[in-house]
Design a protein that fits this description.
Length: 181
């Protein structure tokens, strides 16, 4: 997939975050403490150097066709407000995992759902995946709501489903399949 790919919705543009936007990313993360309990790489002292590394890994995963991290930008102001991504692609099973987050000052406006639906459509139509999973911390009710709003089915709790701060954690698994599947 070409790195200049953009997904456009009524209010958002989803695209790779450019290297010169690393400072904006680090500032956004520092100003979003609601992310810290759910994303172990986000913290109050997140630096521009950490953002640079994150963006480099995001671009490398994109080029390798392993994951697609999209910055979520408002169409009217081109402000970076979060991310939505195919975070893990499992080729053997023709499926992937989706992740999403919106900075604190832009939450509760439907942006996470709008961006996530765009990534789901990209996964089904462009990548031809046959299953998308959402792996949520059992306590992250906002994330559960986004998954359900995107048409996902709650499939239950999976033990030791993901790693957080180097420790296995249980994850609530939601999934969505193509409407023709």
């Amino acid at each position: 997939m070409t790195p200049d790919l953009q997904l456009i919705t009524s209010r958002l543009t989803l695209r790779l975050i450019h290297a010169d936007e690393a400072k904006q990313l680090s500032t956004m993360i520092r100003r979003s403490p609601s992310l810290y309990p759910w994303l172990d790489w986000c913290h109050q002292d997140f630096t521009t150097s950490e953002a640079d590394d994150f963006l480099l890994h995001t671009r490398l995963n994109w080029v390798k066709n392993m994951a697609y991290g999209f910055g979520v930008f408002t169409r009217n102001t081109n402000e970076l407000i979060g991310m939505a991504a195919l975070t893990d692609r499992a080729f053997s099973f023709n499926m992937g995992t989706i992740g999403y987050w919106i900075q604190d000052s832009h939450q509760h406006r439907g942006y996470a759902q709008e961006a996530t639906q765009a990534v789901i459509q990209f996964c089904f139509h462009d990548l031809k995946l046959t299953r998308i999973e959402f792996i949520c911390d059992p306590g992250n009710l906002a994330s559960h709501q986004v998954a359900l709003a995107c048409g996902a089915t709650n499939e239950g709790l999976a033990r030791n489903r993901y790693i957080f701060n180097s420790q296995p954690k249980d994850g609530l698994v939601f999934s969505v399949i193509p409407s023709n599947g």
